């Protein structure tokens, strides 16, 4: 049944020997068509549509067919040359389509032809439309043509990367064509006609890079983070990972554990009498060093989280001080309602912003004051809650409040004394007897962490406030990464933390009960104790190895690569 059906289609559009129209899901990036039964009415409609279309637009390749030569359709595993659109679909100047695998050069020879020259001399015309063997790593101005009909699909650029010097480590061809729906569809459809090609799975290009050993897992994750970075600190952290800083730190950590393990194994192999006494001490010292390193990395996790997911900044203060005006200024839009009626904001309003390159989740809160209004009371409770859980607390005060004997409610003063927030004195444009010295006020009044005087209305003092606040945040959370330094603070993720925690437990077990007595002068450790201790070290090394992918980590690979988009 299938072969009869396939031969029917091939009368509409005969493929060249060796070329095969691919099955449905490889054919169209935009609208993968489901496999249909040969009897379906869809088939008849499709055939009649095909009759009037040029091969490039033909839908025939969406139907399952058979290889004219072998009579067999290749499985996905056999079609190990992959292709995909690597740029977002849509109208744009340029789109990049990647082909990676053993058949990449064959694709080039079937689909890249010399671009027509402006001059129309007979010689130039003769050259036009010819296929040619490219020099690797060189960009060619060319025409991208359909492999069978030779119809020109677009004119653009193409480059051939000869493996292993390519991203994936395999032969790779990139087509840089104009980004338009019809162009992309036609090029992707043309690629689907190759028997050995299939559409890449999400992240498959990067997976091949990992499998070829060109990137370790921390670098792969860095690449993913780099693509998804929203702020400069995230970009820096991702570059740090892509540049191998994480890899080197984890590899050196694993090296320390393995050195310790090798010393313990020497004791196991040669017996305690045969090895020097200080071998025990050295093994122990190395394990301790590794343990300290792991602890440092784990202690730094909050900073990593801040770089990755953002810092919480809560704006609080008495009513009418300009808190919502500040939020709107930071968000560069009217996110919060602003009126001159005290008590305008009732609930907590959150906006995520990029402040000085850091992702910051800013909350505007209800003004804190004594009130009998039930709704306002709830709002104030929520405000206090938001301030308590924020990393950065910023109190906004109206400058006029500072002249009063009791500038704000008792409750507010108590909070300020306890949490020592940053202080922003607002409305310095309004008429007050003498402009306040913000730092003086800060020190004298509530012992705040830093203070500025601004007018959110006129913009006075705001630049200084923004710059200094940004710097203070970076200092406090050490989020300025020095990418070049080997001992630069690392930005780790939850997966790294999980393995580090496991490693810490194994190291603790090694240094604790398992090896108890073994490394003491008056050693009472039995040979069994030493063997068990060695096991703990081996597990610790494995846990660190899992971070970089140095051990068998098949189960975690899928999770990581699934996060990527198709074409990466
Ligand atoms: N003169 C002057 N007025 C300002 C300044 N900043 C804000 N205002 C005004 O102060 C009033 C209160 O501003 P909001 O931003 O709503 O104050 P808030 O702290 O959010 O007040 P609640 O939501 O009631 O707690 C509005 O009329 C603002 O236009 C400033 O720098 N100078
Ligand atoms: Mg408000």
From TrEMBL:
It holds the Pfam family MMR_HSR1. Keywords: GTP-binding, Nucleotide-binding, tRNA processing. The keyword Ligase does not apply. GO terms for molecular function: GTP binding; GTPase activity. One of its GO terms (biological process) is tRNA methylation. It is found in: Mitochondrion. The keyword Nucleotide-binding applies. Residues 1-23 are annotated as: Disordered. GO terms for cellular component: mitochondrion. NCBIfam families: mnmE_trmE_thdF, PRK05291.1-3, small_GTP. Belongs to the TRAFAC class TrmE-Era-EngA-EngB-Septin-like GTPase superfamily. TrmE GTPase family. This is TrmE-type G domain-containing protein.
